[in-house]
Design brief:
Elements lengths: L1 H19 L7 H12 L20 H10 L2 E5 L3 H6 L6 E2 L5 H4 L8 E5 L2
Parallel strand pairs: 1-2, 1-3
Length: 117
């Protein structure tokens, strides 16, 4: 049972992190090709806030309420340098590249909120 919870937590975190903080580095040629493709294609469907992914979102007031009640763990997916400058008290710094190796560090008995900015 605990193994299933850990796997579920890992998959949930991986999905949230990759959807919320996906970045890509491309060359200028790739950027031009992408711009041309985007100009020639229909815009992706978005929700009422302009998000094109299916990642669940939480409003700040609800996140604060869960934080105050001790029911949530925050995962800061930014680089360590950004985390060191400022982060939510108690947040775990875990970049998207670290999730697979470190997912067992994430408590499975709390709501998990990943953020990147």
């Amino acid at each position: 049972m605990k193994k299933n919870l850990s796997l579920s937590a890992f998959l949930t975190i991986a999905l949230l992190i990759s959807a919320a903080c996906q970045t890509a580095s491309t060359s200028s040629t790739d950027n031009k090709n992408t711009a041309n493709k985007l100009a020639n294609s229909a815009a992706p469907k978005t929700d009422e806030h302009g998000h094109a992914d299916n990642a669940p979102r939480i409003v700040l007031a609800d996140a604060k309420k869960d934080f105050d009640a001790g029911n949530v763990i925050f995962i800061d997916t930014r680089a360590k340098a950004a985390y060191d400058v400022e982060h939510i008290k108690g947040a775990i710094n875990m970049t998207t590249a670290d999730v697979e190796a470190r997912y067992k560090e994430i408590p499975t008995d709390k709501k998990i909120i990943a953020y990147c900015s």
